[in-house]
Amino acid sequence: MHFTEYVAGAVLAVDVMVVFVSVVFRYFLHSPFDWAEEVARALMIIQVFFGAATVLARSRHVGIDLFRGMLPESWQPALVQFSGWIIVGVSASLFASSCELLVDSYSMTTPIGFPQWMYVYPVAIGSLFMTLFGLANAVNGPPRVVWGTLGVGLAMVAFVCAWNTWMPTHAIAPWMLLTTAFLGGLLLGLPIAFVLALSSLVYFMADPSLPMLVYSQQVMAGTDHYVLLAIPFFVLAGLLMEANGMSSRLIELLLRMFGRLRGGLGLITITATAFFSGVSGSKLADIAAVGGIIMPAVRKTKQDPNETAGLLACTAVMAETIPPCINMIIMGFVANISIAGLFMAGLVPAAVLALSLAAVTIYVGHKINPDEAFDVRTPMLRLLGGALVALIMVAMIGKGVTSGVATSTEVSAFAVMYALVIGWLAFRELTVRSVVQLFVRSASMAGGILFIVAAASSLSFALTIQQIPQYLSSFMIGFAHSYGSTMFVLLSMLIMILFGAVLEGAPALIIFGPLLTPIAAQLGVNPLHFGTVMVIAMGLGLFAPPVGLGLFATCAITGTQVKDVARPMMKYLVVLFVTLVLLALVPAFSLWLPTRMGL
Amino acid sequence: QAPIALRLSSSLAADQNSAHFVWTQLMQTNLKAAVGDQIRIDYFPNNQLGKEADVVQQVKVGSIDMMTTGSSIWATVTPQFGMLDLGYLFDSYEHVAKSLDGGVGAKLNDMLQKGTGCQVITWAQHFGARSVYTKQPVKSLADIKNVKLRVLPTPAFIETFKIMGAIPTPISFGELYMAAQTGVVDGFEHDAATVVANKLNEVVKHCWTTEHLFSPMVCVAGKRAMDRIPADLRPAFLKAAADATTQQRTIGATKGTQAIEELKKLGITFAPMAKNERDQVRKEMDERLWTGFAKQYPDTAPLFASISAARG
Ligand code: NA
Ligand code: NA
């Protein structure tokens, strides 16, 4: 476990250097590296699969056990054990498939001329580790349950194989197996990445036209895109800004400035998330940074932690479109929309959402005494320093994306370098040890996110082979013709809220983004407007009770319970929803800034 | 009896300006006329089944039956295919057709079939030659010195532009619009139809018609796909493809000119490459690029000779 996480962390560090140095060579020395992109991508695949293995070892892959919780209490241990065996089965199949892929790849090169196996080895080795770690988890329990659940699992596989072999005329169709695996996985509370990977795995196994090596190829291909590099990089930048002392200074400054206003604590939560979101790409990093600092202040000033936790979860929805943003990167890449354009399009909607949340918090809020919140008063100069460093980074990312030095992907490597060097120079709080830990943590965190992306793309391949996108898009086109493009946008929005909740965010974008965006474009809806609305809607689903994973994460970070937070959160959610409908109806909110900047 | 459904993948959109889509539609029509409903082609545009490098592998193992592409991606399994992307190898699409139909295509197909089991169904063409598009005016070899150009990230393209004096800059196509707009690159090389389709005309002003590459479009089918087509239908299948190519080449000539006219209307200025410069560059390519390639892959030497013989 330590081995895989340190490998992933070290590779992340090398990858940052490769991208950073290649930009320097291109922009300042005018001699770009031909190989940089392919090498950077290969390094990212190592991070993803080694990171995913680490996350598995720690049992940290995200999933929802709400549905499983509805089943009888006495079944729970067996169901958990059964999930463990499914994870072993999926990982082992991925390993077997990637070995086949490896053999086939020895006779191929990449377009630039490297051996193709350099992409495949990380998948093979990573999935081997996943199998081993999964196995360690699966055998960990009372022997009767461990071997009993394994027996049931194997019997189910044997039954399906036997049925399809001996009853070819009544064979269970691949799509039925896919659907059953998907619903069954959700019910079991299987981590979402494995729900997706399992559904596509059974499809590949059942469809005779799909050789198994294509399974690992599609899982690998899901993360093999240069633009997705921005995800680990922006996650890392965010964690570095938290660790280097910037975020605690920023929040203390805000508390001293606004604490005495009515609803001050809420206003600070909104401002701090917005600010932090401007330097980080990951919502979870934003919430951890803001929640970790603001919750102690909430408790010391005797405010309601559930109220603040609910608001914090809603600020994450608001900040969904503040660049840099992982989900916008994913949306831009799957639906072929300009990522930089999306970054600009998201700013005004985020501001509108922030204002609507601020209005509620002022209406319901109280005043607090900032002096009660902190035991020690940090000198003002240091607090201002923290704010300045953050401001410069926000400006640097904004400027970087529009300046011509680097592409929006490459800017993320600059953000990491800035957070490291300036953060260290300005606050002197980073130690070598803590920086190493951060690289390791971000590699695992990004590995966890990107493994979901990988699994989702293998599922979307299966759906494409099954021609589902064509059926769904002809339905949506028919719907749009009967009810108009506005209703189409609103329906798409509802689909994203629903699947954002069920699929934990990104997979909803991967599956529906490429499907709905071309239809929107045909109907004359601007893709930047459409993309922005889709991303916010997905975020709303992700953070809404009862299944939204983002809400569970927020509660874990703030030490609260979903059942306590849900009620005080409702008023903020309703306002967010109403504002989102407004944003969907008035494209000018998202298009004003990109139009002015000529994007 | 259920029809044989063949999966055909393309990286381009299902659009009348796409050489792949136009060929596929013609193929579908011809096939229907020849064999009725016995064979059907399902078209998967826009890299829906994976990016080209992955689709090559899938055609090899049989999960995808056919693929329409430029020739360069097949160099990842049969490096000799890379020769067709070397700069200034062809003077026109007539030259491409004459060379490929006159034996070069068959020889390359043999190499592909020996190495992978896949086979070339047909050599069609893209719509219009590839030229250089820039933000600042570039009209001569002197102007292109040290200009950062996004080129297709393959050795053949990179070397071609290094010899011309530019700085070839590999950037993924998805980031090209922004990269050209903000000035990460000063320009790029592509065919006019693609420039129009991707609105790249919004971020450049000038075109220097280098016509450095007349890029063939190749349709390759895997071994498993060919085995699925009953032997008695195979001649009809191949004839349908050959006819589609003949029709597509005629359409291609008009589409290429149309796209350039469209770009002119949109305000792009066009400067032709001077004859003496073209001759000079072609000589340099011959000495520094083609010869080296033929040395590295000796079985391509006779192919270079027949391409030269087919010239003008
Ligand atoms: Na199969
Ligand atoms: Na952000």
UniProtKB/TrEMBL annotation, chain A:
Membrane-traversing stretches: 6-28, 40-58, 78-97, 118-139, 145-163, 175-206, 226-243, 264-297, 309-330, 342-365, 380-398, 410-427, 439-465, 486-513, 533-560, 572-593
Membrane topology according to the record: Multi-pass membrane protein
Domain TRAP C4-dicarboxylate transport system permease DctM subunit: residue ranges: 181-588
Domain Tripartite ATP-independent periplasmic transporters DctQ component: 16-140
Places the protein is found: Cell inner membrane
Keywords, sorted A to Z: Cell inner membrane, Cell membrane, Membrane, Transmembrane, Transmembrane helix, Transport
Main location: membrane
Keyword Nucleus: no
Short name of one Pfam family: DctQ
Purpose of the protein: Part of the tripartite ATP-independent periplasmic (TRAP) transport system.
Name of the featured protein: TRAP transporter large permease subunit
Organism expressing this protein natively: Variovorax robiniae
